[in-house]
User: Which sequence fits this backbone?
């Protein structure tokens, strides 16, 4: 494989992570970017972005869109995770060198995390890529960034600040890795600039190690005079309830959320990375003062 990656196709570039990845790739000045958009989509992109509309169920459409591309970065959401195998097939046919699937989040090298229902499609796609990489010239990189720091706080996922009554899972003391959307974008740029060093493996990035209790302490610092009423929640209890719902065939989106709490707040599921690829990928990290400023912006006072 040539070490040079120049032409990059983004799939799902209008989603939660997509705009940041697109902006970072453009700002790097190192790549020609094409946003591959579903036919009929009303998604918009910054002026000057090359956009190709495709029918993702059409192999011919996919091949046409990926012809001439050196890399594919998939940022599809949950509904599109399983269908990434079709995109992988098109990438192989058209000679794409590198595929980065929508794998962002927990460490799915951890055998316990791999078994969680919420990650089933991610595991399926990662295994498919590994098999194809052994048989073809396509290579891949998987990205683990643990929690999304800014996204998770803005959506009251890491710590519910909207009503000052956050749930603390299993005491709130579990330390986990957390990464901003900006740093995930830096990591993707770093992967494409270092294709040999990141070939056929998982990379790990993080901005900070933190716990729910530490987040709560920082939140209290920026809200003097506010009364916080945290309550304790058992991860085992919420997962047991989710297991029972799935066993009855209730696959509503919210019934998968407890498994994310398991992956993030149960130490044996690997939420705190032992090593990272920050230096290689240009991820600089943040300190608690950054978190304080983030909380000041998010919390309604």
Assistant:
């Amino acid at each position: 494989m040539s070490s040079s990656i120049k032409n990059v196709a983004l799939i799902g570039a209008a989603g939660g992570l997509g705009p940041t990845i697109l902006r970072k790739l453009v700002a790097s000045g190192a790549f020609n970017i094409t946003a591959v958009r579903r036919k009929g989509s009303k998604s918009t992109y910054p002026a000057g972005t090359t956009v190709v509309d495709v029918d993702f169920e059409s192999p011919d459409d996919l091949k046409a869109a990926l012809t001439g591309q050196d890399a594919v970065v998939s940022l599809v959401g949950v509904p599109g995770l399983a269908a990434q195998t079709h995109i992988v097939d098109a990438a192989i046919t058209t000679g794409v060198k590198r595929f980065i699937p929508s794998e962002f989040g927990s460490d799915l090298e951890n055998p316990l995390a791999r078994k969680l229902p919420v990650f089933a499609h991610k595991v399926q796609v990662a295994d498919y890529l590994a098999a194809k990489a052994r048989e073809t010239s396509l290579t891949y990189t998987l990205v683990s960034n643990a929690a999304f720091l800014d996204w998770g706080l803005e959506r009251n996922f890491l710590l519910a600040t909207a009503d000052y009554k956050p749930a603390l899972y299993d005491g709130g003391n579990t330390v986990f890795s957390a990464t901003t959307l900006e740093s995930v974008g830096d990591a993707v740029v770093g992967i494409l600039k270092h294709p040999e060093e990141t070939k056929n493996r998982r990379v790990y990035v993080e901005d900070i190690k933190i716990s729910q209790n530490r987040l709560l302490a920082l939140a209290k610092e920026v809200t003097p005079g506010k009364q916080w009423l945290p309550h304790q929640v058992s991860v085992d209890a919420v997962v047991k309830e989710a297991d029972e719902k799935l066993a009855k065939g209730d696959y509503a989106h919210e019934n998968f959320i407890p498994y994310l709490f398991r992956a993030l707040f149960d130490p044996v599921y690997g939420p705190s990375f032992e090593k990272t690829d920050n230096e290689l990928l240009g991820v600089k990290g943040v300190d608690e003062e950054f978190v304080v400023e983030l909380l000041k912006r998010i919390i309604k006072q």
Summary: The two ends are 54 Å apart (CA to CA). DSSP finds twelve helices and twelve strands in the chain.
